[in-house]
Each structure stands twice: as C-alpha cells, then as structure tokens.
Amino acid sequence: MIRVLVVDDHPVVLAGLTALIEADPLMTVFASAASLRETESLVVNGEPDVCMLDLQLPDGDGISLGVMLKRRWPASRVLVLTMASDPGAVIRSLGAGLDGYLLKDSDPAELRAAIHAAAQGSTVLGRGTSGPVVVAATVLPDANPLAALDARDREILTLLVQGLGPSQIAGRLFLAPKTVRNRMTAMLAKLGVTTREDAIALGVAGGLGA
C-alpha cells in the first residue's frame, strides 16, 4: 500500500486528491495538511511513501517544504503539484533533490500513475514540462555529464546557474567576452546539449551554483 501525504491550501483540490488516492486500491492517504506550519507539526506513526506538495503555500514554498520532509523522512519521495508551468520552478525542484513536478490540470490517470512511479523510485515529470527539465531529470550519479567539464568550464557554468550573463562572467573571471562566448559554445558540445538553458539545467541538477 502506497501511503501518500497531501499538502494543499485549497480545500477543493485537497478533497479531490484525497478522493483520487482513496479510489485506488493500492494507495491510501497517510495524512493531509493545508500549510507548511501544519505539515511541520504533524504527529504521525511511520512515514509516507510519497508526498504531494502544492508549490505555493500560504506560509511558505513547497520546494523548501519538500527539502524539509526529505530530511525528516529520507526514504519518502516528494512530488510538487502546481498550476504553474514554470521551467525555473521545475529545475529548482529537481536541483533541490525532489522527485517530480506535476501540473494540477493533469488527468486523474496521469496523477495516479505518477504516484505509483514515484513510489517505485522514478523521477516524474508531467506533460508540459520544458526541454531543460527533461535534461535535468536524466542526470544520474553514475553518469554525470559534468565530468566532461574542466575547472574553467565549471566556473562559467556555476556563474550561469547563478544568473550571470556572458559579459558579467567575463568581468568576474577577468576574461574577454569573446573568450567566454567561445568557451560556452565548447561547453555545450561537451555536455551534449544545444542551448544555454539546457546547460543551466544540468548545472542545477549537478549541484552547481548552490
């Protein structure tokens, strides 16, 4: 039986997710909450297999809550469920070590399948996610594309993850802007991607820029 913790501040969404989970004979609602504070104060026996968290809570951020729950229950899988189809939020979720990102307009069958897949150890990405997110999700500890980068590449990628542009990076590293642009082109080839956004996604997933 897959035990699911559900956190959402919208009563209708919370009721709908509860009904969806309880309708599946292989799942049950472990606990539910409507805020970060309420979730932190839960007193429960055991731990959930999967946590489904709203991205925007009245008193905090679902990603931060997910990180906290991972510390509390290391074996639990954490999925972010939101209306926001935001590549940046998805990349932040994966970079923080969470296990998936789903949209609230997903159909019930997709949500049920996502919970089952997460419980089995898969990273789950709902429809509508962007190319950079897919790239980030494919990074595995034993097959890290960042291993192809030299020290200077890592410096540049770290600064890209932190939000700096090529000219700012050139100033920070005392390099000519053209040198930075040339190195960025070579770095994309080393990573096997075609856009700066894809490279940033890999950097986030690889822990750079934290």
UniProtKB/TrEMBL annotation:
Domain of life per record: Bacteria
Any single GO BP term: phosphorelay signal transduction system
Organism for this UniProt entry: Calidifontibacter indicus
Pfam families named in the record: GerE, Response_reg
Domain Response regulatory: start-end pairs: 3-119
GO molecular function: DNA binding
Protein name as it appears in the record: LuxR family two component transcriptional regulator
CDD domains, sorted: LuxR_C_like (cd06170), REC_NarL-like (cd17535)
Modified residues (4-aspartylphosphate): 54
Residue ranges of domain HTH luxR-type in the record: 142-207
Sorted UniProt keywords: DNA-binding, Phosphoprotein
